[in-house]
Design brief:
Elements lengths: L1 E5 L11 H13 L4 E7 L8 H8 L6 E9 L5 H8 L6 E5 L2 E2 L2 E2 L6 H6 L2 H17 L5 E2 L16 H4 L1 H10 L2 E5 L14 H9 L3 E5 L12 H11 L3 E6 L2 E6 L2
Parallel strand pairs: 1-2, 2-3, 3-4, 4-7, 7-8, 8-9
Antiparallel strand pairs: 5-6, 10-11
Helix pairs in contact: 1-2, 5-7
The structure holds zinc ion (2 copies) and fe (iii) ion (2 copies).
């Protein structure tokens, strides 16, 4: 299978050197992945080393090694991201919303504020910004679609209503959504997105990719088999990877 969301540098935890690249690719090979996609946070742009990834990848002929980016989407900062994307021929680009209105909401310290806010308003505003991300034409993929649930706060309104416009935009723009297995290891304790959303995504004909969101080598590919089995159960026939911004289709069987 494939893992299209791994962070070689983590949160600036290590260098993009040969040894660290090999650790990620060794784990991918050990787990039998066919394709792996590096997608470091745009914050660590200066620390990235794409040519070294390309070089080390040649030691792994059985593994398709892709290079992407996880870009922080903020309204009115499209130019900044566009500029980064002009610097390298990325295979894929994940647009993620980890903050809005100056609030980086996914840090553990922010949990109390999640419980204090109006849950419906929290979800409404998150999906509003996510919709703008999907409209921006900067990305191939939208990351962890329902990240706002990270601490387990649930809306009173139906999630399908709250996510409706974001999903329509994703479908219109031909964007791909990931099953991101990392949510299981956050307080919410489940994949992003939740199962009802997965079913709705499939119903709307939106394509899926898979990602562990590994920030360390040893969790590359974590729960990816389970995620692909879940998609197959729901009735999703294929998942996609990316090469040079083009989708590469893998049959789920
Ligand atoms: Zn991260
Ligand atoms: Fe993220
Ligand atoms: Fe990530
Ligand atoms: Zn992520």
């Amino acid at each position: 299978m494939l893992d299209m969301h791994v962070h070689l540098i983590g949160h600036n935890d290590r260098e993009a050197n040969r040894e660290n690249i090999r650790a990620f690719l060794d784990e991918a090979s050990r787990r039998g992945l066919k394709e792996i996609g590096f997608a470091d946070h745009d914050y660590y742009w200066e620390q990235m080393n794409f040519s070294l990834i390309r070089e080390v990848a040649q030691e792994y002929p059985g593994l398709a090694v892709r290079i992407g980016l996880e870009a922080e989407y903020r309204p009115h900062e499209e130019g900044r991201i566009k500029h980064l994307l002009e610097q390298f021929p990325f295979d894929f680009v994940i647009g993620s919303v980890h903050e809005f209105d100056g609030w980086a909401f996914d840090y553990p310290e922010e949990e109390p504020l999640h419980w204090k806010k109006d849950a419906d308003e929290l979800y409404r505003r998150y999906f509003e910004v996510l919709t703008l991300a999907a409209k921006s034409r900067l990305f191939t993929t939208i990351g962890h679609f329902d990240l706002i649930k990270i601490f387990g706060v649930r809306p009173r309104k139906d999630i399908l209503t709250l996510a409706d416009e974001a999903l329509s935009t994703v479908a219109e723009q031909g964007l791909v959504l990931e099953v991101n297995t990392n949510g299981r290891y956050k307080p919410v304790g489940e994949f992003y997105p939740e199962r009802r959303l997965m079913e709705e995504i499939m119903r709307r004909g939106i394509e899926f990719t898979l990602g562990s969101d590994a920030h360390v080598a040893k969790v590359v590919g974590r729960d990816i088999d389970e995620a692909s089995q879940l998609l197959r159960q729901i009735g999703v026939p294929t998942v996609v990877g990316f090469a040079g911004l083009d989708k590469v289709s893998y049959k789920l069987d």
